[in-house]
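A favour between colleagues. Tell me how you read the following sequence-structure pair.

===
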Amino acid sequence: MRIDVLSLFPNMFSGVFGSSILKQAQESGIVNYSVVDFREYSSSKHKKVDDYPYGGGAGMVLSPQPIFDAVTALTNNSESRPRVVLLCPQGQRYSQAKAEEFAKEEHLILLCGHYEGYDERIREHLVDDEVSIGDYVLTGGELGAMVIVDSVTRLLPGVLGNAESAMTDSFSTGLLEHPHYTRPADFRGMKVPDVLLSGHHKNIENWRHQESLRRTWTRRPDLLENKTLTKDELDLIDDFPKKNNS
C-alpha cells in the first residue's frame, strides 16, 4: 500500500513514521509512506499557498493551485487511481469501519490543511472523502493524518504479529473489546476470573463475548442502537442491571 501525506509541516511525521509498528511495516515493504510539502508546488514567486477570502472575513484560505498540482504529480506516479482524503472538521467522523475501508485501497493521499480553511473547489473537484477525527478543531490536519495512517496500517496483512488482533479490536465487531488478564493469576488478592484459567475454550469464548457486550452496554450503549442483536444477547443485556444491583 502507498500513503502520501500533503502537509506544510512534513517534519511533524518523522517520529511517528520512524517508530514502532509503522516503521516495521515500511521496512518490511507492506506500506510505503511519503510526506510531501505542497508549498513546493506553489507557482507563486514566494511559494505562497494561501490568500484572503473573497467577501472578507478573518483568517486565510488555502489556495487551490498548489494542492491540485501536488495531487496531480502524485497521481501521475501512481499505478492506480488514489483515494484522496481531506482532513477537515466538517468531514465525516472517522471510525473503525472507515479505517477498514481505507485499508482496502492501494493508494491513499491525505490532505492536511491549516489557516481558516480550504478553497471550496478543492472539496468539490479533488477529494473523495472529507474526514474528521472528532468534534473539535485542531491547528492543522497533521495529527488527524497520523491517526488515519496508524489505524489503517495496523489492518494491513502481515503488520500485526497475530492476524486475529485487528479482527477482535474494539469497534471491529461492533462491540468494545472484552477485558484482558495476564500473569500472575492472583495479584495482591485481585484474582483472574476462574473461567479464563479453566482451559475450556468454549466457556472462555462465551465469557469474552458476554463481557464485551457488558462493557459496550456500560460504556458505549450508543453502539448497540444500530447493531442487530440475537435473542441470547438481548437476554444478557436484560440481566445486566440485575447483576449490577446484586
